[in-house]
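Predict structure. Chain length: 182.
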Amino acid sequence: MSLNLRLAVPEDLPALRDLMNAAIGELLAPFLTPDGVAASFEVMGLDSQLVADGTYFVVEDDGVLAGCGGWSRRATLFGGDHSAGRDAALLDPARDAARVRAMYTHPDHVRKGVGRLILEACEGAAAGEGFSRCELAATLAGEPLYRTCGYQEIERFAAPTSSGVEVPLVRMGKTLTPIGRA
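Prediction complete.
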């Protein structure tokens, strides 16, 4: 196993969508009803603004796309290009938390360190831009990883969908270690 982290580029978008669809469809199944998994596609997915902003990472395992995820200096907490309620307003590092966004691991690559690698890159990049905190909206499948990596629950909430099914999420946060301090 050889994990390679790099920034995503626009040419990655089709493969990223495929990876996200596989992750949503398979990794949420043990936590949600089939209707809940289907509804998740409405509130989750690719946010191409992250790629355009240069804050979205790809991890390859021996050349195969294994995972993706990023961070944002924008106000949107979760969701893809198609999701309602997006807010592109820039955050103020002096008072706001950076957002960890759109973390997905391909089902064939779970438990290999892909998520941790991306999360560490996101936290380091956000700290490098002056953010002292990160927040995210965790799925029930992702919550254990974030807890293990030091994120604390802020609130549980449900994202509404057009089908009437609500998708459970957990807003979590973490204080970052300033760059240059161990």
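Summary: The first strand starts at residue 3 and ends at 7.
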